């Protein structure tokens, strides 16, 4: 799944769940349209109307469309669906690390003794970003976003979850495929050049650290590779630490919103030529820094050496919600 470019970036398929949930249930008016086109709603209608003649309406025609089109059929007379920018005005503030996380002596000691490994890295000019949000109607939310940009975001995690070890290693050996091994090395160089990966701190994990498997995975319909961290791997996964109920419902603008806006432009200025372009968004998630107390759980192992990943990682259960929170503020500014 691709995202709009407020700032360059990419959204991986593994983190589409929050956006998918929110795009099918953004508000009352669009809920009515979604229900009219769903299979279960049509079945219920048939049962309720047995023995009656039902006139063929525009809504029922929409309902006959293939399932993959059910959210991309536009009613020229409908109102706008709820957008990302609208959602921000009632969104709850993002969480900060709980006190017990900050008081974790094992983690605090490792961070204190290795301060150069843990940094807040983002190219976003936070002061300028914040200045555009001075008249934002939901200040608690925007303050939480700006605090996350300055101090690192917390992905709704409980790293002290009962039964989880203090330190855990699920890293995998170097790929036997030479092309994939070379790709991981090249990605390491790119990430270090942007200061998102730390220097190597040797071949062993330090106390409080976790290392999940990383893979060089082919992109869909392409021979190119992408770096994926499997944060769901094993019995003690990072995603297992996250409260999944709190990372759903984060709204991401989609083709339905685009169609509604194009139809509105045509109504207001019929016949005018339109130009639509797609931005390069290859690294949007990676612009978002993570809090040092979660960075310590994001150790990547490449060629037997260990590196801290300081930024929002593809594959995290909370990654999509964090990206959408930042990007929604950009959408509000643009609107």
Provide structural commentary:
The chain has 335 residues and is mainly α. The chain has a domain at 13-23 and 89-251 and 280-334: HIV Type 1 Reverse Transcriptase, Chain A, domain 1 (Roll). The protein has 13 helices and 6 strands. The chain has helices at residues 17-23, 28-36, 39-48, 58-63, 84-88, 99-102, 105-113, 126-131, 139-151, 178-193, 255-268, 292-295, 319-334; strands at residues 168-169, 210-211, 214-218, 225-229, 299-302, 305-308. It is globular.
Distance between the termini: 23 Å
Write down the overall mean pLDDT: 81
Q: What's the level 1 CATH class of one domain?
A: Alpha Beta
Number of strands: 6
Uncertain residue ranges: 1-59
Q: What is the N-to-C order of secondary-structure elements (H for helix, E for strand)?
A: HHHHHHHHHEHEEEHHEEH
Given the structure, what is the number of helices? 13
Q: What would you report as the Rg, rounded to the nearest angstrom?
A: 23 Å
Widest sheet: strand order? 1-2
Principal-axes shape call: globular
Largest sheet: 2 strands, parallel
**Secondary-structure arrangement, i.e. CATH architecture of one domain:** Roll
């Amino acid at each position: 799944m691709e995202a709009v470019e407020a700032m360059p970036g990419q959204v991986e398929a593994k983190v589409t769940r929050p956006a998918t949930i929110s795009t099918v249930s953004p508000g009352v008016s669009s809920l009515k349209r979604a229900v009219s086109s769903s299979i279960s709603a049509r079945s219920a209608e048939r049962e309720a109307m047995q023995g009656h003649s039902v006139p063929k309406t525009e809504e029922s025609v929409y309902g006959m469309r293939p399932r993959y089109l059910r959210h991309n059929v536009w009613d020229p007379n409908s109102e706008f669906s709820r957008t990302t920018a609208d959602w921000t005005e009632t969104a709850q503030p993002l969480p900060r690390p709980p006190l017990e996380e900050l008081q974790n002596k094992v983690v605090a000691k490792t961070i204190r003794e290795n301060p150069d490994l843990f940094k807040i890295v983002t190219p976003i000019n936070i002061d300028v970003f914040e200045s555009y949000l001075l008249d934002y109607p939901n200040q608690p939310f925007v303050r939480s976003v700006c605090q996350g940009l300055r101090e690192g975001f917390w992905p709704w995690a409980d790293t002290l979850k009962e039964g989880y070890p203090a330190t855990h290693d699920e890293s995998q050996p170097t790929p036997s495929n030479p092309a994939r091994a070379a790709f991981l090395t090249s990605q390491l160089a790119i990430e270090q050049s942007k200061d998102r990966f730390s220097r190597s701190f040797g071949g062993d994990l330090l106390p409080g650290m976790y290392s999940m498997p990383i893979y060089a995975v082919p992109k869909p319909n392409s021979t190119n590779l992408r770096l994926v961290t499997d944060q769901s791997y094993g019995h003690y996964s990072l995603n297992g630490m996250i409260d999944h109920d709190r990372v759903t419902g984060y709204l991401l603008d989609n083709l339905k919103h685009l169609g509604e806006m194009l139809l509105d432009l045509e109504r207001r200025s019929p016949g005018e030529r339109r130009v639509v372009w797609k931005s390069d968004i290859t690294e949007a998630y990676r612009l978002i820094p993570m809090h040092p107390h979660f960075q310590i759980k994001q150790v990547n192992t490449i060629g037997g050496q260990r590196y801290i990943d300081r930024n929002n990682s593809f594959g995290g259960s909370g990654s999509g919600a964090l990206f959408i929170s930042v990007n929604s503020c950009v959408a509000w500014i643009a609107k």
